[in-house]
Amino acid sequence: MKCLFRLDANTNIGYGHYQRCLTLSEFLLKVSVDSYFFLNGDFKVPDSLKAKGGYHLSRYIARTSNINCELSIEDQYSHAEEVLHKLYGIDFLIVDHYGLGQPFINVVKENFPRLLVVLFDDFIRDLNLVDMIINPVANKKAYSQVKSQRCYYCVGNKFSVVSSCFLERRNESYNSKKLVWPIENCLVCFGGTDPNNLTEKFLSTEFYKYFKTVHIIMGGLSVNISSVRRRVADLPNVKLLIDGDMVEEMNWAHIMMGAPGSMSWERSVMSLPSFTWTFSDNQVETARYFSKNRATHLIGDSRDLEVEFPLEKFVSIKEGDFKEMVDANNSLCDGLGGYRVALSIIIIHSGSTLRAVHDEDVDKVFSWQTETDIRHYFNTPMPPTWQEHCKWFYDLTEWERKHFYIIKVGKHDCGFVRLTKESGDNYVSILVSQHAQGISLAEMTLKKLLQVESEPLLAKIDPRNVASVKAFLSAGFSRDERGVYYAEPE
What we know:
This protein is an alpha/beta fold.
């Protein structure tokens, strides 16, 4: 399958849209989807992102220099006509562009009615004919007035798209920050281009003196590098990094000064407290979300004439406050949202399937059985050892193997569902891997199970397991007076 991303990025707009689309393409590749990008003609790949390239880049000279401005209806129609030539052989169109709205989508759908249109949305726009909306700081209630009744919503923090390289260091960063006090290492980054030159404004205050070491990251395409470099030259505790390794730096840092937007989710995965300043409208909701959840201190909007760098707020932070911010960040983003979005795109395109289990699945099933917290509501919450797992797996009876299915989304295995016999009844056990949870996959799997099985199905569910109860009820199961869930096959 193939996907086309439509977005713009340059030193004026910034590279946040490109970064999150490139990150999503990373997860789409994991589920066998090739990604293509359709960008403005003056687009240049930042040095920090070149290593993540390898995709075919088509060029388009954008009709607007400001991504926050709505294109006129005529311009949207005109642009849609040009985009149409890029859509042959494409299965999904992912739009991350505030200037492209309903007129653009109408033309695309009129010419390619089977094409799936996916929208990154930071403003809760009311658009028809959109097949999927991605917004990690919203909820479905916020979209209650959206006209497209068949729209699939990837909304809420479970759908934050963060590169897997951050996930690999998540636990390490969390554990180290839980031991931090006092705060000594400060990371400063106001986006790859820092269009409002907040980095230099930060250095013009006394703020940097309160830290043992300050690392500043700037993108190689920023127009402010020279002036910042001159300031840093006289500051012994401040180091300027051009296109620095954000994963390493967030792991090193105790606190960060920066912008909201997609970087908020990277900080969250790394359990990194922060002070943030907004500098564009699309960052406002994300900034409020993290501030409300006590993961960051939202200072204000940098577009105000007086940009505040509140020394007193930092100095007043107590150890308990800092640890609370660390925990809040850790709880808001598990780093698996990119998988969930990618799998959701496959689901709305071709659904999910069940296949028979094979001997070669022993490693895969073991990895699912031993995921962190996956067995919280199991009858046996302690994960098995490898030896115990192998004995159980290879000792399955012929009947148990026949009724043991691997859950697939496209070419990607996401968990399993199986039956066991108890006093002649067929009981269902289902496990969906954490990276595939929250996308209604359990409900879809149970519905498919009722189609392939010929006898009544039962299930015992811990009443505290709200997600599992909801999935079984939504799939058509009922709860009897014993608290057992049951359903007749179709």
